[in-house]
Hints:
It comes from Streptomyces chrestomyceticus. The protein is an alpha+beta fold.
Amino acid sequence: MTVVCLGYRAGFVEAARRRNLDLHFVVDKLKPGLSGLSCTRVTDLADGEEVLRAVTEYPGGDISAVVTGHEHPMFAATVLRSVFGLPGDTDPARCLRFRDKRIQKRAVSPAVPTAGCVYLKPSEPDYAALAKCLGATFVVKPADGFGSQATEAVHSQAELDDYLRRHPFVSDVRTVAESFVEGREIHVDGVWWEGRLVWAAVSSYLDPLMGWTRGKAVADAPLGPAESELADRATRFASDVLLQLAAPDTVFHLEAFVRPDGELVLGEVGARPAGALTPEVLRMTHGVDLYGAAIDVALGRAPEVPGRADEPADLFGWIYLVRSPNRDLTEDSFRDRFELVELDYPAPENGREGVYGRCGHAIVKAATHKELMHELRAIADFNRSA
């Protein structure tokens, strides 16, 4: 049985191997982990036509399922399921509810707090008009974006004009402007099966993701028992959102903000596993394999997820490392200063810069969420010190 995987994620390789499944990757970037694996390269994974041509060529009709751990191939995955009669969602309109931020926020009821969201037409870049309906500070980003790419807060006409100069576009539905939501940024990751939540965990980011363009660290860790009330509320909130969006069977990643008064506000939700190293640290913390669950769901099988268990003995968190201004900083520098579960910080001549400015990563553990976030903050500061 061959499973087509749109975009490379190492976790799918291991999950497929444990299930005795063959994988064929369709990718737009060649990564070292693809060495020795079956793959086809395309220009754009968001282009359903190109992806369909690639899969029609190979492996053709000999496929059992399609999975992805990325946001932009979601529509192409829907096309493949429809054409090849594969299990899973084949409704393109529903797929858009999990891709387009404007469509998604219009699809939920007023009972779900969301940021105000409108399309930004390049022919009408009127800051005053947008501020009147969204507030003096609003956020501009691609309507179907991912990874906080081209996501920036705007406070004036000059800043809006500068954004449009650096990120030009012509489509009236390419970019959205959203009201700015003040609050802590959390996310819920889990498995939705037969109309209900069968497993979920709540985590929080060290800093708002949008701040990475201003030098903030990108890091993340699960909540601990001390915040069980917030975790319970966030889990119920995620369930309500997924019901209102008529979610298909899926592994999902939902982002939300916790306002200073405690209210939860929907950021966005995707019908795919979380990015970065979140699935890896959730497996270390809770024993869940979200990659495996995604494959199970794609095959139409009941997903393998842990039952209710005691609180984990340790929490694990991850941080993306950037290239330090101190060129003498090495892996040994980090290991001498911190107790690390995992570390990747290649020498400058061997490294490359990825999403969020990433050139490496670290994984750490602690007994509590507070201790874990303190350690991640210390690593971030050390990473950025000259």
